[in-house]
Structures are given as structure tokens and as C-alpha cells.
Amino acid sequence: MSEGTHKPSPFYHKRTLRKTREECEHVREKFLQMSSLEVSEEVRQYLKTPTFDNWQWEDAEIMVLLQVMYTDLDFISTFNIEPDVLQQFLYEVYRRYNNIPFHNFKHCFCVTQMMYGLIWLTDLRSKIDSIDLLIMLTSAVCHDLDHTGYNNAYQINARTELALRYNDISPLENHHCAVAFEILEKTESNIFRNLPTEQYKRIREGIIKCILATDMSRHTDILNKFKAILPVFDFGNKDHRDVLMMIMIKVSDISNEARPMDVAEPWLDCLLQEFFNQSDMEKLEGLPVTPFMDRDKVTKPSSQTGFIRFVLFPLFIELANLFPCLEQHIIDPVRKALDYYTEMEKALEREKQNRALNETTVKTSTSKEPDANLEAKPASL
Ligand SMILES: Nc1nc2c(ncn2[C@@H]2O[C@H](COP(=O)(O)O)[C@@H](O)[C@H]2O)c(=O)[nH]1
Ligand SMILES: [Zn+2]
User: Fold this and answer.
1) 227-265 tens-digit pLDDT
2) 103 among known catalytic residues
3) Is residue 282 lining ligand 1, measured as CB closer than 6 Å?
4) Ligand 1 centroid – CA 357 distance (Å)
5) Is the distance from CB of 234 to CB of 267 less than 8 angstroms?
6) Nearest to 87 by CA among 79, 76, 78, 77
7) How far, in whole angstroms, is CA 61 from its chain's centroid?
8) Are 340 and 260 in contact (CB under 8 A)?
9) Which of 96, 285, 309, 344 has its CA 20 to 30 A from that of 360?
10) Which residues of 96-120 are buried (b: 16+ CB within 10 A; e: fewer)?
């Protein structure tokens, strides 16, 4: 579309994404009923592992599980968080994740659950202050609030309200963060309301840093910073801790392939569904089409093999350099996923070649048909 005529409504995508009031109220009631029930020790332990299967749990149960994380990391007692305020916070968070294929409340849960698992697996409680752990967990909970299913490239190219508001600088991540603090501005959902101003300031600064770090356009920059400090890493150094916190939210954010195959693969289907929705919209609106989202070019294996080789491994390996115990939990499963998608890629390639071969055979045989007819004609002709 030409300049000037292209004017997508900034609220174009907002009509159908939002959860309805009825849906929210229904989940809230269930959550409140369930939250008084005791979660078993078996589930509490399972919740600390990257093998946790999110697909077995409905949204109200997921809210209870998030509550368990705050409780079992002792945040309730350490930061004097009232149970009803935590419940209201979690409800507001649930309400403000949209009904979209990938960046939804279940993604929020998975990222938070991975962060929670990493905290336990690395015994991080013995290495850094609780306040940093609180920042990490809460950042994970809030990191994609009100995601519309269209990435930053789209926001910028379509000149959406978010891109305008944030001057094309990480529009989504800035928005997720702003929504988080909108929730925290309300007294009834401010889980930090009993903290002294200085602590609140530190938490706010930390959450902003962590959420903004999830913009993948900053990936290489953040990873290089981490690599540079790794040989002299010091848990007592605030600058080092800040980079580690950013790395850990990044790892958690893109960690689906570190999960068992039957948990991870449906997530890829959801991601591709969201990618394809975006590229369809880009085509419809005459915007540049994001190549890795184009349904005419991308397959499941082609999407994953490159992502695993060039994004996941380089990132996960560095975190495992600091915490060698993570190798078996996040590197080994990703290696398996790479094998799985490499095989799938080969199978698809074979299928494509066979199809091409069949088409050539059909073409050759049909192009021979007139000759055959001719041959069948009487010699006198
Ligand atoms: N091809 C794949 N891309 C992935 C996968 N997991 C994540 N991603 C990409 O990274 C960003 C993560 O940031 P978020 O804050 O938006 O969640 C996501 O949007 C994808 O573009 C994956 O398994 N394969
Ligand atoms: Zn995310």
C-alpha cells in the first residue's frame, strides 16, 4: 500500500484478543476456591523441574501453582506479602494476558516455572539476595503482559500505537513492563506494598531491566556481556548479578525446547500459528513480510534447527558454564530436540524429492500420450 493510504487502526487487533469479563470472573472464582486447598508435596517437587507439563493444568490451577512458587521461595514471609494481595495480583496478571496462540497466560506460566526450576536447580538462594529472586520471578510472570501476537517488527512497520508511544524502541517489552506497573500501582494488587521505598525502587529497576532484556534484538549484546564477565564472575558484584538475571530470564523465555518433546512440540505449533497470523496480516496490509514467519517458507523443522543451533545452544551453553549442573537439564533435551527436527527435516526433504519425481514421471508419461495415440493410429493415416 502506498504512503498515506496505509492507515491500520492501532486497536485493530484488540477487539478479539481480550478475555471477556465472564471468562475472567469464572477463572477467578475457581482460583479462589482452589487456593485454600493444600498442594501436595509431590506436585511442589515436580514444579521445581523443567520436565513439568503445563498442558495438564487449567488456568485457575496454574494461578494456584504460581502462588505456591511465591510461598515456597519464602517471599510471602520475607516481603510481608498478604495472601489476598498476591491472589489479586495473579488475577490481574491472568486477566491481562490475551487469548492468542503463543504469548498467552500459559506461556507466562512456563517461563516463570522454568525460572523457578533454574533457581532451585542452581541453588541460587544460597548465592544471591531474596530480593533479586523476587525480581526474577515477578519479571517472568509479567514479561509478556498484554502481548497482541504481533512482534516489534510489525509494531514498527504498521506504526501502531505502541511503536508511536515508545519511539520504535522495544515497543512490546516497554508495554509489558508498563502494564506490570499499572497492576502494581493499584494498592489491592501491589505485592510490594509493604516494602520500604528504597526496596521498591530496587525492585522496579530490576523488573524493568529484566523485562526489557527479553527483546530478542538485544540478544547478542546481552550474551556478549555475559561471556565477557564469565571468567571472573562474582555473585557479590551487582553488575554481574544484573547480567545474570537478564540471561536467566532470556533462557527461561525461550526454553520450550528444553522440555520433554510432548510438552515442547505443541508449543512450536502455537508459535507457528502466531507467526503465520502475523505474516498473513503483513501480506494483507502490504507490509514487509517477516521471513521466519512466512507460511510459504517456514516448516516446523526449518524453524527449529536454526533456532536451536544459533540461538539456544550459544545461550544455554554459557549459562551451563556458570552452572555445570544445568547441562543435563537444559542442554541434553535441546540436543535431543535438534536430532528430532533434523530427522524431520530430512524426511520432509525426501518427501519433497519424491513428490517432484512423481510429478516429473506423470508429466513425462502424459507428454508421451500423444505419441502413444499416434502409434495406435492406423498406418494409413
Ligand atoms: N523459532 C523459534 N523461535 C522461538 C522459540 N522460542 C522463542 N522464540 C522466539 O523468541 C521470542 C522470545 O521472546 P518473547 O518474549 O516474545 O516470548 C519469540 O517471540 C520468538 O520469536 C522457538 O522454540 N523457536
Ligand atoms: Zn515470552
Assistant:
1) 999 999 999 999 999 999 999 999 999 999 999 999 999
2) yes
3) no
4) 36
5) no
6) 76
7) 20
8) no
9) 344
10) bbbebbbbbbbbbbbbbbbbbbbbe
Contacts of residue 195, defined as CB under 8 A and 6 or more positions apart, other chains included, come to 79, 80, 203
Q: How far is the CA of 361 from the centre of ligand 2 (A)?
A: 47
- All 3 cell numbers of residue 232? 571472573
Residue 143 CA, closest ligand 1 atom number: 15
Instruction: Establish whether this prediction's ipTM goes over 0.95.
Output: yes
The response to whether residue 344 sits with its C-beta less than 6 Å from ligand 1 reads no
Residue 163 near residue 31, CB atoms below 8 Å: no
The per-residue pLDDT for 11 is: 46
Grid cell listed for 99: 487469548
C-alpha cell at 317: 551453553
Q: Are 115 and 137 in contact (CB under 8 A)?
A: yes
Q: Could you tell me the three cell numbers for 56?
A: 495438564
Render pLDDT for 271-291 as a digit per residue (tens, 0 to 9): 999 999 999 999 999 999 999
Task: Tell which one of 175, 259, 271 to mutate to probe ligand 1, the residue whose CB is within 8 A of the most ligand atoms.
Answer: 271
Q: Is the CB of 271 under 6 A from ligand 1?
A: yes
In the chain, which stretches have pLDDT less than 50? 1-14, 370-381
